[in-house]
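Example record used in the benchmark description.
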Amino acid sequence: MSNRHGMTRMAGHSVTSTAMCMTSFSNSTFLLTGFPGLEREYPWLSIPFSCIYAMVLSGNCLVLHVIRTEPSLHQPMFYFLAMLALTDLCMGLSTVHTVLGILWGLSQEISLDACIAQAFFVHGLSCMESGVLLAMAFDRFTAICNPLRYTSILTNTRIISIGVAILGRSFLFITAPIVRLKFFDYCRPHILSHSFCLHQDLLRLACSDIRFNSFYALALVICTLFLDAVLILVSYILILHSVLTIASREERFKSLQTCVSHICAVLVFYIPIIGLTMVHRFGKHLSPVVHVLMGNIYILFPPLMNPIIYSVKTQQIRIRIQRWFTKPN
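Model output (C-alpha cells):
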C-alpha cells in the first residue's frame, strides 16, 4: 500500500511538473495570423507588401532628408512634418519584421516579451501621430488666424517643448497597461488576430482580471485620439471662420490651400482607425481576412500616404524632389 501511495504521489508530481512546463511554454509564445485561407498565395502577397514597406521607409526618409538639407524648409510647419515622417518611419520599422516574416514563411511565432514590446510601440506611435496632427492643426491655425505673431508664437524652443510633450504623452501614459500584460495568465489559445501585436488582442486571450486595462485603455483613447480629433475639428472651424472674413476670393483660396495637405493627413489617419473599430465591433461575422486586411490598412496606410500627400501638395518639397530627379538643362 505504501509503495502504491508513493507511486501515485510520484505520478501526480510528474503530471503537475508537465502541466507547469506546458503552461510556461504556452505563456511564452503566440501565433500571429496572416491571411487565413490564402497561405498558398503568400509568395505572391509578399511582393506588394514588400513594395509597400519599401515605399514607406524610402518615402519618409526622403521627406526627412529634404527638410534637413533645404534651409528654406527650416520653418515650424516643416518641423512638425518632420515629426510626422519620423513617426511614420518608426511605425513601419516596428511591424515590418512580423508582417513580412509571415509572408516570407520565416516564422509565425512571437514571444510574449517581443509581442508586448511591439504593442507598446504600435500604440505609442499611433498616439504620437495623433498628437503631431494636432500640433500641425495649431500651426495652421496660428499661421492663418494670427499671421503677424506666427514666428513669435512658434519659436524653436516652443516647438521642441511641444515635441517633448507629444512624446511623453504618447509613451508614458501607455506604460502601465502594457507592462501589466507581462503578468497576465494567457489560458486561451494563443492565436492573435493580426500579423502584429495589439493591446486589445492580448487582452482577449487573458484569463486574469483585465478590468484595469480595459477601462484605462478606453479612457486613454478618449483623452488622446478622440480629444485630438475634436480639437482638430475646432481649429478648422476657427480657421474657416477667419478665412471667410477675407474679402479677396484669391486670398481665401490661397489660405485654405495651405491646409489641404494636413486635412488629407488627418483623414488618412482617422478613417482606418474608425474602419478597424467598426470591423471589430460589428463585423464579427465577417471573414478573418477582412479583420487582418483592416489591421494592415490601419498600420500601413498613413505611413504610405503621408509622404505622397506632402510631396504632391507641398510646393517646396515637390520642387526640391523634382530638382533631384530631373537632369539640368
